[in-house]
Design brief:
two-stranded antiparallel sheet, 12 helices, mainly alpha, 2 strands
Amino acid sequence: MAQAVEDWYKQMPIITRSYLTAAIVTTIGCSLDIISPYDLYLNPKLVVKHYQVWRIATNFLYFRKMDLDFLFHMFFLARYCKLLEENCFRGRTADFFYMLLFGASVLTGIVLLGGMIPYVSESFAKIIFLSNSLTFMMVYVWSKQNPYIHMSFLGLFTFTAAYLPWVLLGFSVLVGASAWVDLLGMTAGHAYYFLEDVYPRMTGRRPLKTPSLIKSLFAEEPVVAARPENVQFAAPPVEDVQQN
């Protein structure tokens, strides 16, 4: 069992493995009182006035207390982060990292701006950790990249992946969780989907092109298609050989 878990962990792509490890270590550290959540949450005043800039990143690592909800989000993080990195972004690690960076920036900007808007400022002020929203963004982007995959929700009904974010949003409302967290993730995910997929097809321009600085941080591996066993390629026709 331990060997199987170790193999599963080692087979994860680099971004997924790093983020999952950081999230688990941070959450466990807070549960054991080794780390204080008060040193991690997003607080614009502390960032600007006291230069606690690490809060911009650490609020994406803490998934609250160790309970069923934590396991639920770890499952979605491991599954959909891995699916995106291995399939949709295969051989494009820098692009995947830039997607997460873009999503984190959008989520942070929405919360900061929402805190300045009357009537909704109190709701945004309660959002001090954006880890769940970033995970939901990955689910949204994956659903847009794979809209026709058939899925089942708890064996109750089936649907296509395009509706997965809405199914999860409805489930969150039914169990009494805040819908704001999921809606923020959907907003950031749709912003990325529009700027990366829709807008370039409309205009021929790609505004979210990954900067060369970020690309230099990752060694892109070429995508190689494996050749099936016991398959032989036919030799060229004799006529073509003679002409050459």
